[in-house]
DNA sequence: TGATACATATCATCCTACAACTTACCTCGA
DNA sequence: TCGAGGTAAGTTGTAGGATGATATGTATCA
């Protein structure tokens, strides 16, 4: 229970709230690329906070490449292509459609990465993956633990590709999905237990051991479609259903 | 020429430098997850800047989920899988190996997305893609313009998938690659002209028009492997070469 | 007219002060 | 001795003002 509290405990600090407000205004199109933001002083008056708070908020947006501040002139909204970071709005994930899209992206990333992992994995990778698999179905089967193991399983496979960017991207997407499901479980007691299909994981692992890229990719694809279904999201993937 | 200056003009502000320093220290493992950062005062003394600057730097790291600050206690390094944002170190991309990995990720993302786009595109999407294609080979063939069109071409295809996350991820990865190549061109006059293969793009476009998912995926895969080769990166993709 | 100097607006940085929160220690009473 | 409660110190969060750096517009003057 304390784990939950710790996981939630993201205190809403003032700079965070100001940044979120401005961020939404930009994403929603109320502030178009090229538009100039109000001055720091105007913002501090508008939100009723000190200029320091405004500056911390702007520092964050600037680091993300959402705005560009120029000394003596002001701060301007940048085009979406110029973003220096990818950030996913967790509020938006409460919408099932968005969840579906995220699962689709995950499937694309993980399926082909599984094929790469099958071709490149070494014994150390296999050991790590096996360890996660064991934890998943093992005695530590209280919910948080097995979900952690599930995520670790996927991360270790991503690591076995030897490509750190793939690892980063997959970890990130999986974590967003995990957080969103975690939240949904808390607000909707019906989904109290998240069912983890161990069989699907075993098939992926076996394909990796065999070094069979095609089988690994197919197994991963089937697994993610299954995982999506189990949380109430049905994937409209073209490939997943028929091809191959 | 002014375009270049505008593109480069990322002023190194003090908070940015402090954030970069701490970020590297975390990524490199000198500060492990769970470790506590020095206090704001200590950091401000160490870097010779005001506490305000340190706070802006920390605000950025916190927004990225790299650290967690708790009032009255201090700031602590979070585990990599808790990151709230994906950010790519542009310095690291000067290493060809990293560039290769990024191209590999791009290939995974774009190949399958091209298949999705072929299945879901409507006439509006095709028009936008065609417009980018025309700009690429058209009269506006000075370097910056055709590179912009190239990127736009890929972004429009991503948009045709109807999945905003796919669009975001692909835009981001392409932009990182573009920036890195841009930089390489400036420091190495040998690669002054970036060759853009229009034929490869046309084949992708034709597959999209035909609604042929398999052909679109194959064409996209071939194109990205080709593009990587033209900037001196050879992709070791398993699928790209042989498997159909 | 054209160029220079000045005033203004804005961001960048610094400084100090206080509030809110946590921890550790210390005192005091049973 | 031991426990409860309070106190002090340390740390982050927020406020507000002061000064430097930079860009823009304006007024002055040759």
How does this model look, in words?
- The structure is a homodimer.
- By secondary structure, the first copy, chain A, is mainly α.
- In chain A, about 65% of the residues lie in helices and about 5% in strands.
- The first copy, chain A, has eleven helices and three strands; from the N terminus they run H-H-H-H-E-E-E-H-H-H-H-H-H-H.
- Chain A has helices at about 1-10, 15-25, 40-45, 50-65, 95-120, 125-135, 145-160, 165-185, 200-210, 215-230, 240, and strands spanning about 65-70, 75, 85.
- A two-stranded antiparallel ribbon of chain A has the order 1-2.
- In chain A, strand 1 (about 65-70) and strand 2 (about 75) form a beta hairpin.
- In chain A, helix 3 (about 40-45) packs across helix 4.
- Chain A starts with a helix and ends with a helix.
- The model of chain A is unreliable at about 1-10 and about 240-244 (pLDDT under 50).
- The structure holds a DNA duplex (30 and 30 nucleotides).
Summarize the structure.
Two copies of one chain form a homodimer. Helix content of chain A is 65%, strand content 5%.
Question: What key attributes describe this structure?
Answer:
65% helix, DNA-binding, 3 strands, homodimer, 244 residues, two-stranded antiparallel ribbon
> What share of the residues of chain A lie within helices?
55-70%
Strands of the largest sheet of chain A, in order across it?
1-2
Amount of beta strand of chain A: under 5%
Tell me the structural class of chain A.
mainly alpha
* Oligomeric state of this protein: homodimer
C-alpha geometry of chain A? elongated
Mean pLDDT of chain A: 86
What Rg of chain A is obtained from the alpha carbons, in whole angstroms? 21 Å
- Our measurement of the CA-to-CA distance between the termini of chain A, rounded to an integer number of angstroms, reads 45 Å
